[in-house]
Amino acid sequence: MLEATVKKILQANVYEAACETPISPAPFLSRRFNNQILIKREDLQPVFSFKIRGAYNKMAQLTEEQKAKGVIAASAGNHAQGLAMAAKLMGVKAVIVMPRITPDIKVQAVRARGAKVVLKGDAFAAAAEHAHELMEEHGYTYIPPFDDIDVIAGQGTIGVEILRQHSGRLDAIFVPVGGGGLIAGVAAYVKYLRPDIRIIGVEAEDSACLKAALEANERVVLEQVGVFAEGVAVAQIGEVPFMLVKDLVDEVITVNTDEMCAAVKDIFEDTRAVAETSGALSLAGLKKYVQQTGVEGETLLCINSGANTNFDRLQHIAERTELGEQREAILAVTIAEKPGSFKKFCRTLGKRMVTEFSYRYADSTEAHIFVGVQVKPGGEDRQAVIEKLRDGGYQVEDLTDNELAKLHIRHLSGGRPSERFEEALYRFEFPERPGALMNFLTQLPHDWNISLFHYRNHGAAYGRVLVGMQVPSGDQTHVADYLNAIGYRYWHESDNPAYQLFMA
């Protein structure tokens, strides 16, 4: 299968639509990590993503009869734009089914490239189901985003370019992983010619379908998939990609939201390009690999797979960058409720920069403060700050890795009810579309009172919502049943220390 795939890659027809993208050096990162770090710039494609390669190559294999009937796909982003452009260049009708939550900027980009857009469902699964219904009804040819050998061959041309453009030492290539089409194509070509080069897949830790499949030695379906890096938010690795990569990939690294945001900043500082979070995923994995292994003097290349991000999302990315670089510690500290306490607290910190401070009077003896402190990367300095405060007699709770604290509490801290009552706290991800909140409220039992609500728009397909509810005692054992029926992803946060310290 490997030889057949490499042959298809060499025969792939992509350059009537795609361009050969350069490899950019990353001098700042290279000096910082004592390795030569290179970035393959797929963000420079005409559709700002590598997806144009696979879409065009797949369409180039169609018969004239298939082209005459048209093509269809389900996609919320880059594959949609790649297919729309490929179809326009070939003069073929294209229908793209997109979830209703798809940001308008992406919908308009697909329409601008000549495709017909059908909005259906709140998630990709519903859009994909409708796409297959239309395919059966009209005789369209379905163009898959990753689970197809011709699509994989198109993406594999990136591997051809890498080895041609950089003929010298190359120790590892870091590839973002969603459905697996990109890593399958790159790994097949590179391993066939240069088996000494390590191929390292990088996944978001909340959508790590390849890692799960490798551990189980078979494809598995993730129960839940995170949506922050929506370009790689896939619940199951593709069947054809997995057949290839299970024997070719040397390692899979997972990274979190903050690490991706930090990588977006790193790419910008070295290239002035604004990567999407899934585009910066591979660099986040590269950095983590260097930190974990301590390698020096190696040549490491990562693929920036795309730059399709909403402008208003950059605020949230910038907000999380310092945490991703481990340059900020988020702490809950208990101090005495008396004059001079804050000054004493700052004196204990010494000359460290306080990046954030939130406080509101709640008790005559103790105050809980929400504080951000600038620290050095690596984690040791953060621990040193915590130990110094504890040695000074302070109670400290480390919230640096606490999602509730970072998404909501830092914007709400200090608000407490004047009287005690029972409250259940849940964190939700709502589809970002009109009517989503009303759907949630309508399906809650009528005698449940909402006692807390916090929402922020991050420019993504999903909004993050924090809800406090007063649940009657007779309903408490059935809360999960009610919430599961609504169908939104959620977390029970009533015992979260960030909530208990600042809002309970």
Task: Explain what this protein looks like in three dimensions.
With 504 residues, the protein is of the alpha/beta class. It has four domains: 2-49 and 148-322, Rossmann fold, CATH 3.40.50.1100; 51-142, 3-Layer(aba) Sandwich (Rossmann fold), CATH 3.40.50; 326-401, ACT domain (Alpha-Beta Plaits), CATH 3.30.70; 424-502, Alpha-Beta Plaits. It has 20 helices and 18 strands. It has helices at residues 2-11, 27-33, 51-60, 64-69, 78-90, 104-112, 124-138, 149-165, 181-193, 209-216, 239-245, 257-271, 281-293, 314-324, 341-349, 380-391, 403-412, 436-443, 479-486, 497-502; strands at 23-25, 36-41, 71-74, 94-98, 116-119, 141-142, 172-176, 198-204, 251-255, 299-304, 328-336, 354-358, 366-374, 395-398, 424-431, 449-456, 462-470, 489-492. The chain has a six-stranded mixed sheet with strand order 1-2-10-7-8-9, with helices on both faces. Helix 8 crosses helix 9 (181-193) and helix 12 (257-271) crosses helix 13. The radius of gyration is 25 Å and the shape is globular. The chain starts with a helix and ends with a helix. The model has no long low-confidence stretch (mean pLDDT 87). InterPro entries: ACT-like_dom_sf (IPR045865), Ser/Thr_Dehydratase (IPR050147), Ser/Thr_deHydtase_PyrdxlP-BS (IPR000634), TD_ACT-like (IPR001721), TD_ACT-like_sf (IPR038110), Thr_deHydtase_biosynth (IPR005787), TrpB-like_PALP (IPR001926), TrpB-like_PALP_sf (IPR036052). Keywords: Amino-acid biosynthesis, Branched-chain amino acid biosynthesis, Isoleucine biosynthesis, Lyase, Pyridoxal phosphate, Repeat. Pfam families: PALP, Thr_dehydrat_C. Residues 329-401, 424-495 form the ACT-like domain.
